[in-house]
Specification:
mainly alpha, 92 residues, Non-ribosomal Peptide Synthetase Peptidyl Carrier Protein, Chain A, globular
Length: 92
Amino acid sequence: MERTDAETAKAGEETVARITGVLAGFVTDEGVEIVRSTRLFDDLGLDSTNVLEMLVELEAEMDIEFDTDTLEFSHFETVDSLAAFVSGMMKA
């Protein structure tokens, strides 16, 4: 059964909320607000180790498994780009 636009939008918002929840655990500066346009490396100061740890937490949180062969730097530019990637993984 196909999702309606409203269901797809709600699922996208839930994905963003879950990602921002996981990302909050990696932020040391409490003044940083995590929104869709937040850049993971530049704004949050994540490094490659943080990204790997975040992926492990997202796998557990969202019950998905990332294929490391499909990971690209562009997936980790912003919260929104990560959410789009995760949403694509969930559909596959």
